[in-house]
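Quiz preparation item.
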């Protein structure tokens, strides 16, 4: 077998009735066990000769005493290894040997080292760089003891002197009483003087109240600005490359809900701002070169900000139908007509360009055998540029600035969010140091990490194997019924048995239950030999999901 446990000692408290004490470390002979009893006064005695040792495959039990009264309350019983520190295996070259012999030898060597480690854990260890010997340390302890005794004697002498000083102090008390009376009179005078301070303090308090009122008004104004700026367009005298805090350029850039969750949910999906489909957005840009609406794709949870060209004017919408409407630039049309002529002989080419348009109407005047053919010319500025006739007014004088869309009122453009919704979301939340917890919150947190009333059954693995992962934080509980004394059940956190729970039966038909706290995803190592009614249960803690 292997020794997968570092245990090399078992300690029990007496209760005046228990006489069987199990241990869970391997020995190969009853002579390899030492039993020590320490009474309530701290005196230790080797009681191995008054014990009966029973061994199992992975430990055993000690029955104490063979005769006499059970271990009393206040006393302790320690079971430790007593390995021989000899090596009795003799292997002959070219001969057959049992691998179990080698494994037993290795196990016994490990047991001897574990015994030494257990003893060293109770010893005084000096650092490697220490120049003192263990004997020096012991002498230092003894010297400290003697010095403490001398100090106690000196303290007794000083106590006697202190009693004499107390009697002298009693005489001084009368003098102190007279001084106290004088102090009382001084206090009365000070109180009278302080009466003149009260009006001044009242005036200062009134000024503080006025300041509080002003601060409240300022805070309300800031909150109002925070709530109303979201989604607005700002025309800013911003240098190229600079983006004001809380804004993004109005350049049709695409963003996701994860980047601006509050803005997306509250203002776009919530219907507070003008939106259109991606297709409508693209069509509008193709028509006018801009779009004053947010393109919204709820399936992909993304959006585009409006596209406003540098120099675009923004005017008030006269009606709901004009909200977000883009209007192409234009001028009033220039029209008119004029007459013209060409030679019918074809010597002078006919036609017109620009705003002059030749109509199909023709007029002729006969002159002898020939004549002059005339056509009508019209003046139409729209024929040269469609901007003419696209408006009924002339575009006014303009100042060209850059356009930005406000997505948040934060003061840091690297962290854009809606402060009003953010602060509302903090209402009723606990501070980081939890100094504002209510009684309900305190009670809820107090329940975290403690067993709840929710549990599920888990598959009990074969001994020597791990359980399934824990579905949440909580507790794994294993249980079963014994058929004899000395049977055991154990669950552990691996590697290294960082935490475990071990129970031994003291008689047949006894229920053994072991419990271990775990985190989500943890597995526990299950071992033992108890045979009946095996069950494994997971218990959620009060704060688990």
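Solution:
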């Amino acid at each position: 077998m292997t020794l997968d446990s570092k245990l090399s000692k078992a300690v029990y408290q007496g209760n005046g009735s228990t006489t069987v004490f199990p241990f869970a470390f391997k020995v190969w002979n009853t002579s390899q066990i030492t039993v020590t009893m320490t009474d309530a006064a701290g005196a230790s005695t080797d009681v191995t000769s008054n014990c009966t040792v029973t061994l199992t495959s992975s430990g055993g039990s000690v029955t104490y005493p063979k005769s006499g009264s059970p271990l009393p309350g206040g006393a302790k019983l320690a079971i430790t290894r007593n390995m021989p520190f000899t090596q009795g295996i003799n292997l002959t070259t070219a001969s057959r040997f049992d691998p179990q012999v080698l494994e037993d030898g290795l196990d016994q060597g490990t047991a001897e080292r574990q015994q030494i480690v257990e003893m060293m854990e109770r010893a005084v260890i000096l650092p490697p760089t220490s120049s003192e010997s263990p004997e020096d340390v012991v002498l230092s302890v003894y010297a400290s003891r003697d010095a403490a005794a001398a100090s106690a004697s000196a303290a007794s002498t000083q106590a006697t002197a202190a009693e004499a000083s107390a009697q002298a102090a009693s005489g001084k008390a009368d003098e102190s009483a007279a001084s106290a009376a004088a102090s009382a009179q001084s206090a009365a005078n000070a109180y009278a003087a302080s009466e003149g301070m009260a009006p001044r303090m009242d005036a200062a308090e009134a000024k503080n109240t006025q300041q509080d009122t002003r601060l409240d008004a300022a805070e309300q104004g800031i909150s109002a600005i925070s709530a109303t700026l979201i989604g607005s367009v700002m025309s800013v005298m911003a240098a190229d490359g600079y983006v004001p805090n809380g804004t993004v350029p109005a350049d049709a850039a695409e963003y996701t809900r994860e980047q601006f969750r509050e803005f997306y949910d509250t203002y776009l999906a919530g219907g507070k701002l003008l939106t259109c489909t991606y297709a409508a957005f693209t069509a509008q840009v193709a028509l006018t070169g801009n779009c004053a609406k947010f393109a919204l794709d709820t399936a992909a949870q993304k959006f585009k900000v409006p596209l406003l060209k540098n120099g675009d004017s923004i005017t008030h919408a006269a009606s709901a139908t004009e909200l977000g409407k883009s209007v192409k630039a234009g001028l009033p049309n220039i029209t008119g007509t004029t007459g013209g002529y060409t030679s019918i002989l074809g010597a002078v080419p006919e036609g017109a360009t620009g705003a002059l348009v030749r109509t199909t109407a023709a007029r002729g005047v006969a002159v002898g055998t020939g004549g002059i053919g005339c056509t009508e010319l019209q003046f139409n500025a729209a024929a040269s540029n469609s901007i003419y006739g696209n408006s009924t007014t002339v575009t006014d004088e303009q100042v060209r600035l850059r356009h930005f869309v406000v997505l948040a009122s934060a003061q840091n453009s690297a962290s854009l969010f809606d402060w009003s919704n953010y602060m509302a979301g903090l209402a009723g939340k606990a501070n980081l140091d939890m100094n504002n917890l209510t009684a309900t919150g305190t009670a809820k947190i107090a329940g975290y990490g403690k067993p709840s009333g929710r549990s599920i059954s888990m598959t009990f693995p074969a001994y020597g194997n791990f359980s399934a992962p824990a579905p949440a934080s909580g507790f794994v509980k294993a249980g079963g019924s014994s058929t004899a004394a000395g049977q055991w059940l154990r669950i552990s956190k691996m590697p290294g048995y960082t935490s475990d729970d071990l129970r031994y039966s003291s008689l047949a038909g006894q229920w053994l239950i072991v419990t271990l706290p775990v985190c989500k995803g943890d597995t526990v190592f299950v071992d033992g030999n108890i045979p009946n009614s095996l069950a494994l249960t997971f218990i959620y803690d009060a704060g688990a999901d």
